[in-house]
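Reviewer comment 2.1 asked that we show a complete input and output for one of the modelled complexes. We chose the zinc ion case, as it is the one discussed in the main text.
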Amino acid sequence: MLEGIVVRASGGFFAVRDDRGEVTLCRARGKLKKEKLAPLVGDRVSFSPREKVIEKIHPRRTCLLRPPVANVDQVVVVLSICNPPPDWFLATRLLVQVEQQGMEGIICITKIDLADAEMLAETRQVVKAFPYRHLFTAKGRENRELKAALKDRCSVFAGPSGVGKSTLLNSLQPDFDLETGEVSPRLGRGRHTTRAAMLLPLKEGGLVVDTPGFTRLWVEKLEAAELSALFPEMASLAGKCAFRNCTHRREPDCAVREAVAQEVVHPLRYQHYLLLYEELEEQEKKR
Ligand SMILES: Nc1nc2c(ncn2[C@@H]2O[C@H](COP(=O)(O)OP(=O)(O)OP(=O)(O)O)[C@@H](O)[C@H]2O)c(=O)[nH]1
Ligand SMILES: [Mg+2]
Ligand SMILES: [Zn+2]
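Response of the prediction step:
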């Protein structure tokens, strides 16, 4: 039995790289399926190289639902300034998962070569609403700050199709040679060029995961009441509300709503909070 890391998962096959750097295409043992435990990219596994079967998944440090990936410590939320325009709600969704898992989040805005000054100023205003580190970049830039942030950690690049995740990774390390695809001029969206998540080693140390773009909505596995704790700019205020179990929606003397009125909490993020809250409530009703 050997140990390795799942570097790619697709159609029931898992590419496992062992510690010598050799990659074996494996299936998962039936008992894992029975336990409803599917290996994810990023999983440490024990596998039989002769039978080409994954026998055991080692305990996960972290686990993301979408994109499905295990053991990453950082999510780089990639959005393009235009073509396609930024989906800020998707960013919040990803960052809620980041907080839930105790990971770090970075927002990376690409394609700034396509933006005029006004668009840049507007985007800077919005991105400041997010209490996360953010970077602006364009194809061909060196991205020194991003490189430093990725060193010796495992980071997943996530965001809609066509925003330039694979392009950005290629710019960090050209020998990744990842396939990239034009944004459809008719639909204004990417064409889902990257088909499956792929884990790649950085020469300077660290791992990165390229993932397929997604836009479809999904629901988090969490209670509506837990949500405000996953918005860092609200979490610190919750204790100051008049009601201990304040949902920050209609209650009087709500410190969060007060902070929104004073724009300490950005109205956009508060709007995202309300939308997600409703979604989680709907989900609880169905249970
Ligand atoms: N002008 C400009 N175009 C860019 C930039 N980054 C990426 N692109 C283009 O945007 C298109 C989509 O890039 P990809 O890297 O394939 O996007 P992706 O996020 O990996 O998309 P999926 O794999 O479908 O999720 C390609 O035509 C890229 O050349 C940029 O900074 N500036
Ligand atoms: Mg891609
Ligand atoms: Zn409140």
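The chain has a mean pLDDT of 94. We note this here for comparison with the apo prediction described in Section 3.2.
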